[in-house]
Amino acid sequence: MKKTMIAIFTVLGLIVFSVPMAMATPTVTLSNGLGTTDGGEFIAVLDDGRIFETFCIETDEHLSFGIEYDYTLSDQAIKGGSNTDSGDPLSIGSAYLFRQFYLGTLVGYNNTVEDANALQHAFWMLEQEEDMNTGNEFIILAMNELGLSANQLLDDNNGAYAVQVMNLTIGTTDHQSLLYSVPDASVMLLLGPALLCLGMIGRRKSKRA
What pTM value is reported for the model? Predict the structure, then answer.
């Protein structure tokens, strides 16, 4: 009985605390990582405790370190960027490269300043913020791995590779747009204890019925 009550209060606590969090606008705070391009990589800390490295995809929007930004997730940079101000869908090339980077499987990326700079420039090229340079090592990698031309890498990703755009705002002011990847399965293991408690309660109720 005592364990059952503990499980109930644990689940109730999760529900009580998760409801306000679900209703609130999610936030992110950023700090500098590798790279000397005035872009990424950046270290992003979300309000749910997750930490990951990311890159920006616009050259005409900015961000500051140590400031808490609201953010929304979308399949496009809402403000656009240097090439447009009416919304800019994420490219298939950016989605592929960032997913590999997020998973730690990006071929040729060895966590050096030079790698970070090359990858940031690749993202800017793929989002048409800079002229395409087919000599960039990560542009070459994406073409070879996906079997696409440089121009085809610019096509909309349409949700591929579980990568989205994190659009930063403070109030009604738009700021930089960053790359975001859906967490891999290991993150979901954090939900295990809560789900187990729910299952235990459900089984015991069934036995009593």
Answer: 0.78
| C-alpha angle 158-33-176 in degrees, rounded to nearest 5 | 45
Determine, yes or no, domain membership for 158.
yes
Mean pLDDT by 10 residues, the chain (209 residues): 45 46 83 94 97 94 94 87 69 98 98 98 97 97 98 95 96 93 68 48 44
Q: Is residue 202 included in any domain, yes or no?
A: no
Would you say residue 189 lies in a domain? Answer: no
**Where do we find the tokens 């961000």?**
63
Sheet strands (E) in 33-181 = 42-46, 51-54, 68-74, 76-77, 88-89, 163-170, 173-181
Side-chain-side CA neighbours of 44 within 13 Å: the count stands at 28
* Residue 89 maps to a domain: yes
